[in-house]
């Protein structure tokens, strides 16, 4: 295995559980979650549902499983679903929305801003047709939008999008892998960003730093069905409280996301001063445009800085393992590199 980069900005998934999390895992009260319910899992699910203003929740081993379980509930053969360009469900989940959930994707442009479709394009993509056309049944949104650069859909736009979907007879699923970051950036309660959605998937293993886990939230009937689907997908875990305990610590640490956002701005400012073409970050993701992103990522790796390419750009992600000093060190390493 290649050595890890000294300053790892490839993703906010690279965090390792801290002492507080490990202590909570060691002390977790556990039971068999497949047979009945693990008490710590139940506590985590209840707390996530409350924070997101939804009636019920179900722990999932990954965000991908949370998304596909939701889509399996919402879609049938012959259905079409709408999602913004470069959405995770479109290109980063092996097409499971199509082959497991049976939905045909239809891509919405980012005509509302980076990562954001407009209500008008939602309406335009649901025009009913003759009997041999697909039925458009689902709008799948992503907040923040990862590949657009961790971009935020504000509350008013979210409301307008879900209203357009509802008027058009669509159910809404929110891929909220980084919904915590959106809420922190907007300074709003995360529940403000879930109203109007039938299902929401949130990750505990991204910026919040848990080693494993996502949560799907919805109403009680859908969550009972999601529990069956999770079992079907092989996602039932036994003494899951060990993992849920880390998830609870992660969930309660979301106040610190503002630091990650400040570090992303520090990185973007520094790169710009060094002549790089960088988008202004809205959350913890910084996108840079270079002539040959793959070559830039290789040069960064040689300088001890981990980054990746997404959607033809170079992506840096800040997280709880990165300090302001790490950003200074990354910038010093970048100073030696060609800017474009
Ligand atoms: C990471 C991510 C997921 C999937 O989560 P996993 O836990 O990696 O399966 C889904 N959507 C978005 C936007 C993500 O960034």
UniProtKB/TrEMBL annotation:
Its cofactor is pyridoxal 5'-phosphate. Gene3D superfamilies: Aspartate Aminotransferase, domain 1, Type I PLP-dependent aspartate aminotransferase-like (Major domain). Residues 8-290 form the Aromatic amino acid beta-eliminating lyase/threonine aldolase domain. Belongs to the threonine aldolase family. NCBIfam families: GntG_guanitoxin. SUPFAM superfamilies: PLP-dependent transferases (SSF53383). Keywords: Pyridoxal phosphate. This is Threonine aldolase family protein. The keyword Hydrolase does not apply.
């Amino acid at each position: 295995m290649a050595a890890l980069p000294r300053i790892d900005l490839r993703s906010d998934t690279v965090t390792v559980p801290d002492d507080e999390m490990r202590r909570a895992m060691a002390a977790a009260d556990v039971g068999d979650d497949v047979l009945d319910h693990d008490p710590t899992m139940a506590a985590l699910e209840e707390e996530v549902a409350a924070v997101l203003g939804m009636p019920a929740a179900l722990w999932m081993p990954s965000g991908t499983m949370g998304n596909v379980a939701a889509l399996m509930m919402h879609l049938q053969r012959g259905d079409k679903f709408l999602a913004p360009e470069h959405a995770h469900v479109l290109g980063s989940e092996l097409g499971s929305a199509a082959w497991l959930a049976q939905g045909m994707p239809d891509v919405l442009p980012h005509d509302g801003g980076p990562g954001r479709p407009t209500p008008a394009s939602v309406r335009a993509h649901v025009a009913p047709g003759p009997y041999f056309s697909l039925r458009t049944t689902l709008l799948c949104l992503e907040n923040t939008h990862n590949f657009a650069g961790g971009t935020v859909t504000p509350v008013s736009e979210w409301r307008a999008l879900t209203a357009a979907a509802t008027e058009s007879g669509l159910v809404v699923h929110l891929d909220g892998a980084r919904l915590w970051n959106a809420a922190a950036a907007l300074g709003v309660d995360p529940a403000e960003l879930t109203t109007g959605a039938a299902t929401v998937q949130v990750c505990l293993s991204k910026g919040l730093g848990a080693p494993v886990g996502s949560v799907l939230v919805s109403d009680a009937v859908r969550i009972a069905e999601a529990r069956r689907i999770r079992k079907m997908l092989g996602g039932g875990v036994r003494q899951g409280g060990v993992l849920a305990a880390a998830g609870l610590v992660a969930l309660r640490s979301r106040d610190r996301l503002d630091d990650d956002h400040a570090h992303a701005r520090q990185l973007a400012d520094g790169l710009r001063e060094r002549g790089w073409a960088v988008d202004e970050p809205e959350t913890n993701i910084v996108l840079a445009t270079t002539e040959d992103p793959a070559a830039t990522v290789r040069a960064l790796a040689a300088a001890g800085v981990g980054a990746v390419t997404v959607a033809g750009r170079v992506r840096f992600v800040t997280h709880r393992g990165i300090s302001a000093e790490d950003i200074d060190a990354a910038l010093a390493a970048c100073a030696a590199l060609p800017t474009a």
